# Entry
Amino acid sequence: MKFKVWRSARNGKDGRYEAYEVDPRPGMSVLDALFSIRDEHDDSLSFRYSCRGAVCGSCAMTINREPRLACRTQVSQLAKAKSLNLRLFGPLEKQIGWDRTAEVLIEPLPNMPVLKDLVVDMTRFFEFYNKIRPWMDLPDVKGLSKMTPEEVSKIEKYTNCILCAACFGACPVNNRNPDYLGPAALAWSLRFVDDSRTTDKKERLSLVAGKNGAPECEFIYNCVKVCPKAVAPAGAIRTLKDHLKT
Amino acid sequence: MYEFDVLVVGGGLAGLRAALEAQKTCDVALMSKVHPLRSHSGAAQGGINAALGETDSWEAHAFDTVKGSDYLADQDAVDTLCMEAPKRILEMDKIGTLFSRTPEGNIAQRPFGGAGYPRTCYAADRTGHNLLHSLYQQCVASNLRVFEEWFVLRLVISEGRIAGVVGYHIPTGEIETFSANAVVIATGGYGRIYSRSTNAHVNTGDGAALALRAGAPLMDMEFVQFHPTTLLGSNILISEAARGEGGQLVNAAGERFMARYAKEAMELAPRDIVARAIQTEINEGKAIDGDHVDLVLTHLGEERIKSRLPGIREISIDFAGVDPVKEPVPVQPGQHYSMGGLAVDKNCSTSISGLLSAGESACVSVHGANRLGGNSLLETLVFGKLAGANAATMVEAKRARPDALVNAQREEERRVESIKSGRGKESVPAIRAKLKETMTESFQIFREAGAMESGLTKLHSLRDRFKNAGFHDAGREFNQAVIGYLELENMLLTAEAVALGAIARGESRGSHFRTDFPKRNDERFLKHTLATLVGGTLELSYRPVKMGRFPVKERTY
# Structure
């Protein structure tokens, strides 16, 4: 099976696509395929990885023009995979002469500067996460807090976010507005805003109210389609917008 | 050169907890070869133990832990673990960790293997993920200085105490020294020396190897936990929570075979016992397709699976194409956890002044010969905090003269340059694959002198081949071939410590089962194994177990 992989130095300098032949094994993930390319063809290929079980969020990249976790993407399923029907923009629709039926195309996530090959600079992504005040302190509660199972399940979905940035890379608004907080940070914001124990809901909402916050979302739903953990950030953003109206 | 009072190496739960504690009074930095959220703590699923129930007690938790350890745990450390547990849960609750709840609104607890009470708190089956994110969020709140994607090349020891570390910045290839009065190693385990492991790719025993080369001993390295239920194919963890919620194990004949191995506890016997049972079924030809058994969850019903085990369901669907709501999950045992690690006292100090360790990289020892599920997350928080507090008391210690650090940096720069420019013919991936194969063949669930001796011979030949190992990438930025080389160097040394300890321990205890010595032998082996690197050779010695309230007994479930 042929893999067409983006190779470049910082900021895309000397960028090019390299083709590698990979012998697919049963159960092989795209991450496994990248390891085999590195081990058998070119040990200078760089990509991030850690858990290989879709929980650490290291290996988000663009696979056949769709942001995905490399570890969660089975090579054998790629040909059969239904299109996510993403709204395309810049890097996701660039013409490069790719034979979709014969080659697996591997590129870095859009909307972040490339550091090398498939590794992107996530500094701004985490800066935006930090901006929503992503922490909680409940010093006034005596003993253990109380929450009903319903109160937990209301926000549980958002705590499942692994900050892989697949949504950030897939978002056309992030592409247009580099200061937009983006789907992941906003989903995390709602996780705190809607926590039944939260005492500073108003202050938290004010952090996502501006033109780079929730109001900037256009409900394109690319984030929902690419999220590997079913967080559905656009739904969180809709709720944030509702909260902001009241 | 960077200077800090306390430097923490490793950004998982133990490292973050240590850094947050030390930061209360001193200038702290944390360095990790990956972003902290990419640490393997986040993959922990089932839960964290604490005696919160009205009829439960920390003493009961301690008893289960000591019995589970096959009496090899140090009981003073176990007391600390179990006494502190409720306080650490309270603390995580206070910073917002989204624990699953009972209908009354209290933190829910589920039964876990080897425990006499349902005392495992959980956040669905994503407990590690939730704890890791909560603690990381506190680091964001407190502006903890984090050096991401720094790989530690060496611990620098000067005049018998820690002086700091030399680090390699993966994004740039820059080499830099970090001076510190105390260094806390929290680098997790070494699971990747085995071919079938639940561990992340990054769990390569870096802390263990750094400590050995610095002269600090490792303890009880032969005790390797094999988790009974890892997903066939990828060996991703299928949590004990699946059995805690009522999951059953069946063989090819459809028999619930645990009845023959632990008729009381059944599937909720401790991990060593269940793992051996499954391996026995496999060895006796009773497994499905010769290599796995089925974990049946279908009888739990869709709702319970979706609410209590959503992560397990997702993993089964994504990585094995199996929906546990409708069909059984194919599982087999796989390496999961390192009971051994840097030998530390109950304040997390190693034998080198100023060098500490906590979490899976350390051996306190609270797990002895076999760790109970739900105790590792607990250990990271309890001993992470203690390590941070202890490290913070060392700020007054005499600073090492900077020349030791400067010299170490120069040596490491030359070493990395020679590794990169060397054109050794031996391939790093080939040696790594052979290492994994050797450990899996010779130091598995069932062990025996002959196989282990031949395994050790293979390890020695791999060590020799590694001297001529090379790679092609000569670049500076994100040169992961350099990292792969350095990790393999660490894995080879760590593997040898596992092998030597296993060969010398002529008894069966907890996870270490010798077919040639199938019984526990307290007279000769109720003691901890220490492995120390002396003049380039690993040497073994022993240390007594700290006994306490629970006398040694036969261990049955």
